[in-house]
Amino acid sequence: MWEVTKQTVRAGIRGTAALALALVIGQSAAAQNLFAPVARVNDEVITGYEVQQRQRFMQLIGAPGADTDSVIDSLIDDRLRGQILDQAGLEVTPEGIRSGMAEFASRADLTTEEFLKVLGQAQISEETFRDFIVISAAWRDLIRARYNGRVDITDEEVDRALGSSRGNNGLRVLLSEIIIPAPPQNADQVNALAERISESRSEAEFSSYASKHSATASRGRGGRMPWTPLEKLPASLRPILLALAPGEVTAPLPIPNAVALFQLRGIEETGKPSVEYSEIDYAAYYIPGGRSETALSRAAELRGQVDQCDDLYGVAKGQPANVLDRGTKAPAEIPQDVAIELAKLDPGEVSTALTRANGETLVFLMLCNRTTAANADVNREAVVSSIRQRKLEGYATQLLEQARAEARITRQ
């Protein structure tokens, strides 16, 4: 499942704005027929306006499948779900709709009102959001009510699930990276450059951009990173990378004071069990001056003086307390830009790719330790819930496929 965050929403506003511009420039004549049918599902129609709105919404939340054909397919599925719900006489209460909208908006750390304002900026109607929530919530309730009693989970299934999680082959990815500093005064220029880089179609082209513009240590290698276990990367980044084919580049990913892009060069199974981490211990020492020659020189000097995180306490002695941050956090609690840099490091290694305070402060980031999550700590009830959800999704897929097979569906 894709993840909705403030970063994906902000990136999505730019994408939907671009889509709106393309529609205005390239489809002025077609705009007159925006409400003409593009597909029919039994006696119901899907209009070009609905397709346009859903595309903008999918781009805003950073979800996959925002191309026209995929959006039409998803709207056809929604029509089928709606017809099944009508036959079942199931409706969502106004309170349920408000709760669903609030829960969805909270994924981006926004209130419903704040999220609706963002939708308005992206030229997405409130009705598009509301319809999306209504269908999703009602369909989930229907599947639970109709099939929950049929789902029987044995102790053996739970044991197998735990055992297979111990033995799953891990994946590793071969990436190239570009992280471009983007202080507020240069944000528009950097965003435009990042959009051009995201259109790279060869490793050589991406490497050339990295050599010229990236702020990472890999710049001298054309942005090329070594093989990296997928589980070391931020959880929100993993599905984005897995959706790429070798040679493809991510959309620009906004991070504090910078923009990140990744090109997938290769992916393979490791033949070893995947490892999940419950806690990451790291330290950040803040150097004034941003990416100035003086600050970078101080960072290089410091790199030669410290071998482990504890050494930074001596460096920071006598300075304000906020010059050094040291803590242990769950992976999901670590800011994405920090998590990306930590993924490249072994304990005792350092990154100086990041800044804070609008680019005025250089971050001397050191990985202290990673704590592996043990399967012994897994809550069996959480495993039961996961198995139940997977089985319910199977019933939902079967019901939808049956409805699709029996429906009269045409595309214009």
From TrEMBL:
PROSITE patterns: PPIC_PPIASE_2. Residues 170-266 form the PpiC domain. This is Parvulin-like PPIase. Residues 1-30 form the signal peptide. One of its GO terms (molecular function) is peptidyl-prolyl cis-trans isomerase activity. InterPro entries: OMP_Chaperone_SurA (IPR050280), PPIase_dom_sf (IPR046357), PPIase_PpiC (IPR000297), Trigger_fact/SurA_dom_sf (IPR027304). It holds the Pfam family Rotamase. Transmembrane segments: none annotated. Keywords: Isomerase, Rotamase, Signal. SUPFAM superfamilies: FKBP-like, Triger factor/SurA peptide-binding domain-like. It comes from the Bacteria.
